[in-house]
Structures are given as C-alpha cells and as structure tokens.
Design brief:
- It is globular and about 35 Å long.
- The chain contains four helices and nine strands; from the N terminus they run βββαβββββααβα.
- The two termini are about 20 Å apart.
- β6 and β7 form a beta hairpin.
- The strands form two sheets. A six-stranded antiparallel beta sheet has the order 1-2-3-9-8-5. Strands 4-6-7 form a three-stranded antiparallel beta sheet.
- With about 130 residues, it is of the alpha+beta class.
- It is about 20% helix and about 35% strand.
- The chain has a single domain, classed as Beta Barrel (OB fold (Dihydrolipoamide Acetyltransferase, E2P)).
C-alpha cells in the first residue's frame, strides 16, 4: 500500500475522490483515504467509454476484501478513456492511487464545476473533521 499523501495539484470531492483537471478534460480516481478505508481492492468495474457521468453520482464500483463501494464522480462529463490495466491489477489503486491507479478520463461538460471542489488544504481539513 502507498504511504498517505494528497497531491497539491488535484481537486478533491467530499466523498474521497480526486480530479486532475487539464483544460476541458479530467482524470479521476479515489484518494489515499478511500483506498485505505476499503482495504485490499480486488476488482474494479468501470463504466464504458462514451458513458455520461454526473457530478455527485456513482459512476463505477470497486470491490475490496471488505465491501463493494460505489465511486462518486467529482465532475460531470463523458468517459473518454478507462484505465484498462486495473482489470488485471486492481490492487494498483492501493499501491498508487494518484498515478498508475487512476480510473477514468472524462471530457468535462462543465469545467467550471471544478471550482466547487476542494484544494488539498480544504480536503485535509475535511479529513481532520472526521469525514
């Protein structure tokens, strides 16, 4: 498992999801906190490319040795790429949640939605408040 960290360049959703926004696209995944709470991840069920996702709604599922959990979209848009490597190695989400463990890439329908997400300082405060 990765050591606890939260990259400065990401935006964070209260449900422990992250977004790396680059223009009108974003890469999405779950935070270190989320993967740690889930435990060993054994399966990732992504949406199909072309699927439209909505901010604050579930778009995928991860299964761990503890439970099946929904992955919540921090931003709205259309799935343009799925991390196919997770099909054979879902534990990558535990090992490297921000880089190799990314889940999907999205063409954003409203890039301004990112303004409502937390920066790393606000997300750490969210965690400290017992999120």
């Amino acid at each position: 498992m990765a050591d606890e960290h939260y990259p400065e360049d990401l935006k964070y959703h209260p449900e422990h999801d992250w977004a790396r926004v680059e223009g009108d696209t974003a890469t999405l995944g779950i935070t270190w906190f989320a993967q740690d709470a889930l435990g060993e991840i054994v399966f990732f069920e992504p949406p199909a490319v072309g699927t439209t996702i909505s901010r604050d709604a579930a778009y995928a599922e991860v299964e761990s040795v503890k439970a099946v959990s929904e992955v919540i979209a921090p931003l709205s848009g259309e799935i343009i790429e799925v991390n196919d490597a997770l099909a054979d190695a879902p534990e990558t989400i535990n090992d490297d949640p921000y880089d190799a463990g990314w889940m999907v890439k999205v063409k954003l329908s409203d890039p301004a939605e990112a303004d409502a997400l937390m920066d790393v300082g606000a997300y750490r405060q969210h965690l400290d408040e017992g999120a």
